[in-house]
Design brief:
The chain has 280 residues and is α+β, with helices and mostly antiparallel strands. Among the domains are: 1-34, no CATH class; 109-211, Immunoglobulin-like (Sandwich), CATH 2.60.40; 218-274. It contains 6 helices and 13 strands. It has helices at 41-57, 60-69, 71-74, 81-92, 218-247, 256-274; strands at 2-3, 13-16, 19-24, 27-32, 94-95, 102-103, 122-125, 129-133, 148-155, 160-169, 174-178, 188-195, 206-211. A 4-stranded antiparallel β-sheet has the order 1-2-3-4, with no helix packed on it. Strands 10-9-12-13 form a 4-stranded antiparallel β-sheet, covered by helices on one side. Strands 7-8-11 form a 3-stranded antiparallel β-sheet, with no helix packed on it. Helix 5 packs antiparallel against helix 6. The mean pLDDT is 89.
């Protein structure tokens, strides 16, 4: 049930049928609820694009980072930082075709602003951790030596991240993050930005690059598991199929059992040839 506090011509608050009405930052919002019986191709593409984008932004340390990174852009609008981060990355940071969409980490943004971004950046992995370096000098006419570096390490394979929101000052020109154990060799995507010391401005994030190779997506993990399951069954059937010929001196003895075996063998072989997830 919805309630209209401002009379019959005011914006209701609550649910009417499949529509939910509410206020968001002073703006009336109406959205539809309920499941679609059947989705169109465009809807399926949009759903996966949103799912992939949300997966990138979901880890709590990524949320902490983008809440600072997009906060200034969101001020004075009806949007929040998460809305802006989702909108940008869904539009500009995806690659591939449905149903194999994935994040293009080199194009992803975790902060947006007008402050001068890190320049001449360099990332070196050592046995002890990560060494970051950048040009510490501000642009001509600027005085931002006390700008604060913010660093984000994303671990897509773990669906996790590590954030360093007060890592170093711009004038330091370098920063070191100690890493040990499995995190040292886990695939990671690295970002950095600057925020002013007074918190009134922030830079666009800069992608420092990938370390330890690209992590598998959930879809890739699923397809790989599916392939290995099918391959295990195929190996069993193939062994029985070849054993039949060995027992009969390479002569085909057609029986009902053999026909069933051959049908399954050929079907599994065809599936394996066309199934994604095959080890490279």
């Amino acid at each position: 049930m919805a309630i209209s506090k401002h009379g019959p011509y005011g914006h209701p608050n609550g649910k009417i049928g499949k529509l939910v009405h509410y206020m968001l930052k002073g703006q009336p919002v109406t959205r539809m609820v309920g499941r679609r019986i059947k989705s169109s191709q465009k809807q399926l593409v949009n759903c996966q694009a949103m799912s992939v984008t949300m997966g990138f932004l979901r880890p709590k340390n990524v949320l902490k980072f983008i809440n600072l990174g997009f906060e200034l852009e969101a001020r004075g609008t009806v949007k929040n930082p998460h809305n802006l981060a989702t909108s940008y990355n869904k539009k500009f940071a995806l690659k591939g075709e449905y149903p194999n969409l994935k994040i293009d980490y080199s194009k992803a943004m975790v902060s947006q602003g007008s402050l001068s971004a890190p320049r001449d950046t360099k990332l070196v992995k050592t046995e002890a951790g990560l060494e970051f370096s950048w040009d510490p000098s501000p642009l001509e006419g600027e005085n931002h030596l006390d700008d604060i570096a913010m660093v984000l390490l994303c671990y897509p394979g773990l669906e996790d991240a590590m954030s360093y929101l007060n890592a170093a000052k711009r004038e330091d020109g370098k920063y070191f993050i100690a890493l040990s154990g499995t995190l040292h060799d886990e695939p990671m995507e690295v970002y950095m930005c600057f925020k002013s010391a007074d918190g009134k401005s922030i830079s666009n994030s800069v992608y420092f690059g990938n370390l330890n190779g690209e992590a598998e997506t959930e879809e890739e993990k699923y397809q790989k598991k599916k392939y290995l399951t099918l391959k295990t069954r195929f190996d069993q059937v193939e062994a029985d199929y070849l054993a039949h010929f060995e027992r009969h001196g390479n002569v085909v003895v057609v029986t009902r059992a053999f026909r069933n075996l051959e049908t399954e063998y050929l079907a599994l072989k065809s599936k394996l040839d066309n199934l994604p997830g095959k080890p490279s």
